[in-house]
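yo

u said u wanted the structure for the complex thing, so here. seqs first:
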Amino acid sequence: MTPVARPAKFTDDQVLDAALAGVARSGHAVTVTEVAGELGGPVGSIYHRFSSRDVLLASLWLRSVQRFQAGLFELAASGPAGTALVECALHVPRYCRAHPDEARALTLFRQTRLLDDCPAELEDQVAHVNDDLLALTRRLTRERYGRADRRHTELVGLATRVAPYGLVRPHLGRAVPKVVDEAVEASATAILACGDG
Amino acid sequence: MTPVARPAKFTDDQVLDAALAGVARSGHAVTVTEVAGELGGPVGSIYHRFSSRDVLLASLWLRSVQRFQAGLFELAASGPAGTALVECALHVPRYCRAHPDEARALTLFRQTRLLDDCPAELEDQVAHVNDDLLALTRRLTRERYGRADRRHTELVGLATRVAPYGLVRPHLGRAVPKVVDEAVEASATAILACGDG
DNA sequence: CTTCAAAGTGAATCGGAATTCTAGAACAGT
DNA sequence: ACTGTTCTAGAATTCCGATTCACTTTGAAG
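structre next:
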């Protein structure tokens, strides 16, 4: 057999975790040196896995988005169909409370903006990161209204993601107060009602 | 008399307008060179008025916040008391539609984060930029609920500013669709109702 | 028409962070 | 023990943009 390589000391996920900690402290301004400090290794080790700072940060964002969505898919699969949408909305403040650093990492980019100037090696992932979520949104829209035209799908997105996210955003990095959940629930219910009748 | 100075070629506002254009294109990553390009002058002229890039961007943010709030005060002064709060909420998407670049500049900082690391010369302005708005919020809260305790004031802030802003944020830099206004109105009304009974 | 305080100008400098590069280390199979 | 492959190491380099500063320009007052 051919010789075998030295085993890795750091996994990709460990590097991303270090970047996550760095972003929690310094936001988008985090430096590669800072990430290396969190990792407990030299900068070279980071570049061995991620070809640039941009790729590192975009990868972190992708992982955070996927983790956030995973909770949502689980919720939508298990919950009762009737209250599924409001539960999805409430997932946002709950997730941010449980995983504040991950939530902060979500703010690093927005898909549309990231697509404009995306490292080539990540273009595919970035382009499709929302596909499953959109499919889920359409399914829930159909369940709720009986159809999933542009307007109703849009309303569901506003009620379950945009509004809840907007309500927690000012608190990212601190504790998310309980009143936010109240507001999320009221807001989601009301926005969904716009599509009735 | 003593000799008199050469008249200014650029006003502070002109420099800020150039920065506004730069931020509209490049966001927080805008460079001083880019601003100089927008201004049609050399970088030195910018430093003649603003002692650093940080001061320039913070000043732009302050001006944008003040302009935004000015519309709000006008609205609150003229409108009927009954619907004043929902009108304030609707001011957000309307303002963003009418002044997209200004709206983008609002996203440069958040007061709490800016205070952490603020150029000394702007500390005062930054610290007090929200004072009038808070006073207005409290006044409207009292009108709506008969009292302005922590919880009710918080709800009014969520309904009239946080939620509306969260709903338009994904659209900043593009056209804000009409459905957003619908959602803002529904959301604001529902969040305010949380404080009743 | 001279003077001078305040403005403008932009090439040169500085600093900090991203990135590269060469060397050394670890491991499994031979 | 030796070898080939991949990984870690971190000093050296490159890059890029903020900032500086010595010089020029302006225009009303005197």
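Chain B has a mean pLDDT of 94. Chain B has eleven helices and no strands.
cya
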